[in-house]
């Protein structure tokens, strides 16, 4: 009898150990699909804010002064003036995690390529974006990248234009 009770307890323990909790990490989820759609919209210059909660906050290379969804789209439209072409490249990495606090985040590591309109210089920049989701909507977005190469090139273009203007005025 002890043997049967011991065996039943062992079986119950094994089944209990096999019970899985919620998925804490995945590379396939509706939230990842939303982010992929957002990236596709960016590439096609479709500035849609429907994936964001009205109160969403976006932070690009900062932890202060967040942008609203419409301000983030305006930011992209404004920076588009500098490029003949731009967009995220194919074959990117996405993951969704459920934190210990129950928050849902999608992280992505992307390569962005742009060609400056003023001189045709092509640049590729690695970018990390992370999105927090609540009820299927983005409530936080953080984007991090090193803009140094672009800023330096735009400064060179501006300096050359200023030099040409100064030279015209002295002639």
From TrEMBL:
Residues 1-20 form the signal peptide. InterPro entries: NTF2-like_dom_sf. Keywords: Signal. The keyword Signal applies. Gene3D superfamilies: 3.10.450.50. It comes from the Bacteria. The keyword ATP-binding does not apply. This is Nuclear transport factor 2 family protein. It comes from Flagellimonas ochracea.
